[in-house]
């Protein structure tokens, strides 16, 4: 099973995160399938590769709680299923 989760990068006390599609059995810093976004909690910046995220969600990937919140703020789920409120 594939998950969309955060992968920690950056230096000590200055974390930034990549949003990656990764196998469930891999550890947090393990090899990812594809990088699909970027999140900086200090500057509150996000970059999302929306077509890649939609591809993985359509194939059955499950976002973690934090990634799901980031995707909700970016309104990615509205593009995935405009008529349904599955992820709200």
What is the straight-line distance between the termini? Answer: 22 Å
What general outline do the C-alpha atoms trace? Answer: globular
What share of the residues lie within helices?
Answer: 25-40%
What's the count of strands? 5
Percent of residues in beta strands: 35-45%
Question: How big is the Rg?
Answer: 13 Å
Number of helices: 3
Structural account:
This protein is an alpha+beta fold and 88 residues long. It has one domain (2-79): Ribosomal protein S16 (S16 Ribosomal Protein, Chain: A, 2-Layer Sandwich). Helices cover 26% and strands 38% of the residues. The protein is built from three helices and five strands. It has helices at residues 50-58, 65-73, 76-80, and strands at residues 2-11, 14-23, 34-40, 45-48, 62-63. A five-stranded mixed sheet has the order 4-3-2-1-5. The protein is globular.
Short description:
The protein is an alpha+beta fold.
Task: Provide the descriptors you would attach to this structure in a database record.
single chain, alpha+beta, Ribosomal_bS16, S16 Ribosomal Protein, Chain: A, 88 residues, 26% helix, 3 helices, ribosomal protein, ribonucleoprotein
